[in-house]
Amino acid sequence: MLGESHDLLHEFPDLEAKIANLRSENPEFASLMDQYDGLDARVRNIEELGTPVADETIEELKKERLQLKDTLYAILRG
Protein backbone atom coordinates (compact mmCIF):
# COMPACT_ATOMS: atom_id res chain seq x y z
CA MET A 1 0.00 0.00 0.00
CA LEU A 2 1.34 3.42 -0.91
CA GLY A 3 2.62 5.52 1.94
CA GLU A 4 2.24 2.71 4.46
CA SER A 5 4.47 3.02 7.49
CA HIS A 6 7.19 0.42 7.78
CA ASP A 7 8.86 1.69 10.95
CA LEU A 8 10.21 -1.06 13.20
CA LEU A 9 7.67 -0.50 15.96
CA HIS A 10 4.88 -0.92 13.42
CA GLU A 11 6.55 -4.00 11.92
CA PHE A 12 7.50 -5.65 15.22
CA PRO A 13 5.20 -4.33 17.99
CA ASP A 14 6.00 -7.30 20.22
CA LEU A 15 9.67 -6.23 20.28
CA GLU A 16 9.07 -2.61 21.33
CA ALA A 17 10.99 -2.86 24.62
CA LYS A 18 13.94 -4.61 22.98
CA ILE A 19 14.03 -2.04 20.18
CA ALA A 20 14.09 0.83 22.70
CA ASN A 21 16.76 -0.90 24.77
CA LEU A 22 19.03 -1.66 21.81
CA ARG A 23 18.54 1.80 20.35
CA SER A 24 19.75 3.41 23.57
CA GLU A 25 22.54 0.94 24.39
CA ASN A 26 23.89 -0.24 21.03
CA PRO A 27 25.36 2.49 18.80
CA GLU A 28 25.51 0.19 15.75
CA PHE A 29 21.83 -0.70 16.12
CA ALA A 30 20.92 2.96 16.63
CA SER A 31 22.83 3.96 13.50
CA LEU A 32 21.15 1.22 11.44
CA MET A 33 17.75 2.30 12.78
CA ASP A 34 18.45 5.90 11.82
CA GLN A 35 19.37 4.76 8.31
CA TYR A 36 16.25 2.59 8.14
CA ASP A 37 13.96 5.36 9.40
CA GLY A 38 15.44 7.84 6.92
CA LEU A 39 15.03 5.44 4.03
CA ASP A 40 11.48 4.56 5.07
CA ALA A 41 10.58 8.26 5.21
CA ARG A 42 12.13 8.82 1.79
CA VAL A 43 10.13 5.96 0.23
CA ARG A 44 6.89 7.13 1.86
CA ASN A 45 7.44 10.70 0.68
CA ILE A 46 8.05 9.56 -2.89
CA GLU A 47 4.90 7.44 -2.80
CA GLU A 48 2.66 9.97 -1.04
CA LEU A 49 3.76 13.04 -2.98
CA GLY A 50 3.84 11.26 -6.32
CA THR A 51 7.39 12.42 -6.87
CA PRO A 52 8.40 11.36 -10.35
CA VAL A 53 11.11 8.71 -10.11
CA ALA A 54 11.94 5.71 -12.22
CA ASP A 55 10.33 2.46 -11.14
CA GLU A 56 13.81 0.99 -10.78
CA THR A 57 14.77 3.74 -8.34
CA ILE A 58 11.85 3.19 -5.98
CA GLU A 59 12.32 -0.58 -6.17
CA GLU A 60 16.01 -0.23 -5.26
CA LEU A 61 15.11 1.99 -2.30
CA LYS A 62 12.56 -0.58 -1.14
CA LYS A 63 15.12 -3.40 -1.48
CA GLU A 64 17.63 -1.40 0.54
CA ARG A 65 14.98 -0.76 3.20
CA LEU A 66 14.18 -4.48 3.33
CA GLN A 67 17.86 -5.41 3.69
CA LEU A 68 18.21 -2.97 6.58
CA LYS A 69 15.06 -4.36 8.20
CA ASP A 70 16.45 -7.89 7.88
CA THR A 71 19.71 -6.81 9.50
CA LEU A 72 17.90 -5.06 12.34
CA TYR A 73 15.62 -8.06 12.87
CA ALA A 74 18.62 -10.39 13.04
CA ILE A 75 20.10 -8.18 15.77
CA LEU A 76 16.79 -8.12 17.61
CA ARG A 77 16.54 -11.91 17.51
CA GLY A 78 20.21 -12.49 18.35
The total tally of domains equals 1
**Total helical elements:** 4
Please state roughly what percent of the residues sit in beta strands, choosing from under 5%, 5-15%, 15-25%, 25-35%, 35-45% or over 45%: under 5%
Distance between the termini: 30 Å
Shape: elongated
Helical fraction equals: over 70%
| H/E element order | HHHH
Give the overall pLDDT as a whole number: 90
Structure description:
The protein has 78 residues and is mainly alpha-helical. Helices cover 77% and strands 0% of the residues. The chain has one domain. Helix 2 crosses helix 3. The mean pLDDT is 90.
What secondary-structure arrangement, pairings included, does this model have?
Elements: H1 8-11, H2 16-25, H3 27-49, H4 55-77
State the gist of this model.
The chain is mainly alpha-helical and 78 residues long.
Task: List key phrases describing it.
single chain, 78 residues, mainly alpha, 4 helices, 0% strand, elongated
